[in-house]
Structures are given as structure tokens and as C-alpha cells.
Amino acid sequence: MVISASTIEEVAARAGVSRSTVSRVVNGSPAVSEVARESVRRAIDDLNYVPNRAARALASRHSQAIALVVPEDTARFFGDPFFAAVVSGIQARLASTDYILNVILATGDPGDKTTGYLRSGSVDGAIIVSHHDNDTFIDRIAGAIPVVYGGRRVRVRDEDHVVDSDNVGGGRAATEHLLERGRRRIATITGPPSMRSSLDRLDGFRAVLDDAGLAPVAVEDGDFSEDGGAAAMRRILASGQEVDAVFAASDLMARGALRVLRDAGLAVPDDVAVVGFDDSMIAATTSPPLTTIRQPSRGQGERLVEILLDLLRGASPEHATVMPIELVVREST
Asked: Fewer CB in 10 Å around end: N or C, the chain?
């Protein structure tokens, strides 16, 4: 059986008001009496009326849509639990609003397809996460609509609105923990140098070693991926340098490093201690369970939405929000 949708005229007739009054109630206009507003709301409930989103967007010049732009490929997006946690937070915060979320994966934006879509009025604002210093197309997006960045950009601008984790503090906490465990020959596996989070975690790592009068045994790029972490660990072992600890700047890279250490016959943590970063679901399921730096990825997603909603309301939210980190000690150290 096909159930026909109720119309705005039927709602108006049921409520005993004009069609324009129903439209004003649906669009949140204050120019309606409370009595009329309640009559319309009851009629909407009785008739299961669903307002036409396209018509509302045309009338209000607002799409009621927000874009999450991720300049990564599909394998990276679906394979890294960090993104799942951030999206979960974004969706949770949007649930109580009229906004819908459009997820856009864009690597380089050839032909300006993504930029053209976002600048066309199809969305009211955007959240951009996992951006790199060569993702210049995001500047064109930010020039047309309100944007909030998940993570600091490599080239910081005063006008940017950013929600980030304390990546420098996380790098420091991981390295301090390894020193407290008596480790002195410490290597690190970083993310790509095109990302500020990678550079900040490396800065924290280096600062603690400098304070202790030590130098890194090795600094290898693991590209924030499991395979990249494994390849970086192989390079560290192949260098012939003695290593007794590794700080991997993501749990995915740490899992790859653990696999290589196991294959090389090295025991964790007896021979080599390992610390990751994220405290994703991966950390508790590695063998051994992974000591890591917890960053509030879901909370970051929620805060990204809150700041963007403030911008869309015409408010002036703070430009930089730094979320706290926490060392979570498990059996890998």
C-alpha cells in the first residue's frame, strides 16, 4: 500500500490557519502567535507532515547541510578508527539539530569538483579534518563558507577556527613514560611531515629527549598507516642501531611495528617497549595490549560541530580549542 504524503495545505486546514502561517512555523519564524504555533505543531504531528527540505532551503537560502571534508582516499578513511570516532562525535552533536551531514572524500580535488560543489550553496559550512599542507583547495572552500578545522594546519592563519588535541603534550608524555621505564635508546615512527599533528608529536618527543641529554636513535615516517608503521620499523631494525623503545605517533603505526618486532623475534616490552597514540579500539586488542596516548576523538568531533554552529549563528567562537590528552598504560611498556 502506498501512503501519500501530507501537504502543507492539509496541515493549514487541520490547524485552521493560512498556508503562510504553517510555512512560518516550519521555518522557525517568530512572527506567529503561540496559539497558532501550537495548532500547527499538533496538525503536523497528527498528519505526519514532513516539510520539503529543498523548498525550505530555497526560501531561507540555507541548505541545512554541513560537509565533513576529508582529504584522504577511501582506504585511509575507512581503515583508520580515528575517523570513525570523529564522525561519531559529529553525528551525535548534529542529532539534535536540523542539519544533515555530507561526507566528502577529496584527494587533491582535480577539476575543482569538490570546491565547486561546496561553494555552490549546497552546504552551509564545512568541517575539514586530516588536511595536509599541499591541500590548497581547502583555502578556496574557506573563502566561500564557514569552516572549522580538525587539527592545526601546517600554515597557521589567525582567522582559522581549529579544534586540536595537545599533540606536543602527547609526544612529551609518551617519551617521558619511556624514560621512566628506563629506556634510553628510543626511536619514533612519525606521521607524514605534511601534517601539523605529525610535526607537533615529533616536537614533543624531541623536546623530552633534549632535556634528558639524549638523541633519537631513529626518526622514520610511517604515514599514519599500519603498513607504513611496519615498513618504518623494518628500516629502524635494518639500520643496525640498538633500540629499546619506540614511540609510534598513531595506534595503527604501532600495530604495524609490533608485528615486525614479533617477526624479528624481539619481545615487547622486554626487548623493545612500544607506545602508540590515539587510544583507539586497536590499542586494547594488540598483543600485548598497547600503552598509548588517549586523545578525545569523539569529543573533538562534537566540539567541531559546536564551533561551526556558532559561526553559522553569527557568533564569534574562540579560534583555537586544544583538547587534553592522557597517558594510558598497558602491557607494551
From this structure: N
